[in-house]
């Protein structure tokens, strides 16, 4: 009898617990639905002044932006909706797409933080470095790192960049005899990584010869793909769910491979500093580099970067210093391959300054005005970073009277800005004279932003521009470039501007 009563009480307890759990879960669900409803109503109210393409109440505009069509779609919508429009990634999250120079100027002048809902996904990979930091911590890191990009530091890099470019061009000479076009992006990625290791980290990596270095390149490529896919899909934003997904597992493994590479770089330099007696002793033997300055930088109060902060900055510069530059160089070579008249004018100018190219120095780079104009026009058509994000902390009233309320997030869409016919007449035409001295004064200061602008502009833009000039000069002295018309590139945005099917060129050796 007692056991029967005990079992009945047990059944009653379990049943009660299940009922309470059900009611609690139902209550949380109702609360979440109410939060989403309130959020959606606020977003709809804030979007009233900014018409855009119709969006589904649940999945927004997701189906309208397939990866291979995304950039083309953005350009067409920028023509239809002046200045900005909301792009919905779900019924409850959107990003205002901004592509008007005056709008962008007002946003960048506010020093708003990077968009948390976008950049937080990069943290497991590149940590909290200069790219994702905000506020006073960002200002401190920027001050610490600025000396690493002084002209006196950058000047010796030119010869090292040339050495890396020549290794790549020697490989291309052998491959140019094959009866097929060459996919250049991977070759250029290895070359820019090699150049970065030699200059910013003073290491002879031999990564263009040693195929094991491809693991880092492949890890970066996989991370770029996975993280961009995650940003676009609101159902992958939850960290717990993403952790247990197959994509989350792949992202962790790729980040681990990337970290192994950068950890090795840091460890080798620490040992070198210890063995050679510190920064002063090393400075008597060779140029100081990015990592030297990073390891020894101190604030006025004597603070240095923690190990976590140090690795974040190395991971950040390792990614940005090779991948964005590789994108810029690859698209530059494609642009000149498709415009042979400009390619030849650059080649003639380069020959006039460099001769056969056996020697190239810092001073030579300032004597190539037409080549520089072609580089800038290629960066306009193919910006290495297609968009950047900001969270709006203070309400902004734009010159046309429209108001963007605090609490919204924006994507400053550089690709759409650079292809905006209201900003650039005939934007799809490759015209280097847009950047001639007489035309520069006619441009809006925020019409050309391959390296962003304002206080948070790219700290490494001189480094990147110098490398683009060096590689282009040596390449055009060695080869005539032609596009493979059977494999036209398909531009896609995967953190940096890539081609979905690679960038294929024919190389003709010049004698």
UniProtKB/TrEMBL annotation:
GO CC entries: endoplasmic reticulum membrane
SUPFAM superfamilies from the UniProt entry: Cytochrome P450
Keywords of this entry: Endoplasmic reticulum, Heme, Iron, Membrane, Metal-binding, Monooxygenase, Oxidoreductase, Transmembrane, Transmembrane helix
GO aspect biological process, one term: lipid metabolic process
Coiled-coil annotated spans: none
UniProt main location, coarse: endoplasmic reticulum
Stretches that traverse the bilayer: 20-38
Metal-binding recorded as keyword: yes
UniProt record similarity statement: Belongs to the cytochrome P450 family.
Family matches, as InterPro entries: Cyt_P450, Cyt_P450_CS, Cyt_P450_E_grp-I, Cyt_P450_sf, Cytochrome_P450_Monoox
Protein name per the record: Cytochrome P450 family 4 subfamily B member 1
Lineage: Eukaryota, Metazoa, Chordata, Craniata, Vertebrata
Compartment(s) where it occurs, according to its Swiss-Prot or TrEMBL record: Endoplasmic reticulum membrane
GO function terms (MF aspect): heme binding; iron ion binding; oxidoreductase activity, acting on paired donors, with incorporation or reduction of molecular oxygen, reduced flavin or flavoprotein as one donor, and incorporation of one atom of oxygen
Underlying gene: LOC114024846
Species whose genome carries this gene: Vombatus ursinus
Family annotation (Gene3D superfamilies): Cytochrome P450 (1.10.630.10)
Cofactor(s) listed: heme
Chain sites annotated for binding heme: 458
Domain of life: Eukaryota
